[in-house]
Amino acid sequence: MSDYKSLSEFICSEREKAGLSAIGLAKKSGLTVEQIEDIEAGKDLFLPATIRQKLAKGLKLNPNDIKKYERIMLDAFDGVTDRFIEDTKKAILMGMTENLRCPICSSKLNTRVVKLIDLEEKIALHPKAQCSKCSFQIK
User: What is the pTM of this model?
Assistant: First the structure.
C-alpha cells in the first residue's frame, strides 16, 4: 500500500487528481453523489463489487487498486455473540446509544433506526450500527 490510510482518503485523493468534484465523479461512475460522499466520509469501509467497478471506471483505475484499501476484518467478527447484537439492537430502538461501543475495537458505534414498510403496510423499525473506526456493522 502507499501513503493512504483508508479507502476514503484514497478515493478523495484520486478524485482530486482526476480533477473531479463529487458530482463529476458520480456522473462518470454512474453512482449517486450520496454514495460518493458516504465513501469519502468513511461511512463505507468495504464496497460491493458493482460499486467498486463503477468507481474504478469513473476514476480510470483497476478495481483491485480500490479493493486493497478496503477494510475487511471478518476474523474479528467471530467473537461477537448473537446476544451482543440483539442487546445492541434493543438499545438502539430504545434510544440508549450514547455509550454503545464496538465489540472489536471499542470505538463509538454510529447508530440509526431505519423505518421500512412491510408487506402488510405496517411500519417496521430496523436498528443499524456502524463502528466509527473499523468495519464492524449491524445491518
Answer: 0.53
- Three cell numbers written together for 55: 468507481
Q: What is the pLDDT of residue 73?
A: 44
Output phi, psi for 58, to 5 deg.
-65, -30
Residue in the block written with cell 473499523: 134
φ, ψ for residue 6, nearest 5 deg: -150, 165
Q: What torsion do the CA atoms of 20, 26, 30, 34 make, to the nearest 10 degrees?
A: 160
CB-hemisphere CA count at 13 Å for 42? 12
- Residue 59 makes CB contacts below 8 A (sequence gap 6+) with 11, 14, 15, 18, 25, 28, 29, 66
Question: For residue 1, is pLDDT > 50?
Answer: no
Q: Sketch the domain layout of the chain as residue ranges.
A: 7-67, 75-138
Q: Where are the beta strands (DSSP E) in 22-136?
A: 109-117, 123-131
Top CATH class of 7-67 equals mainly alpha
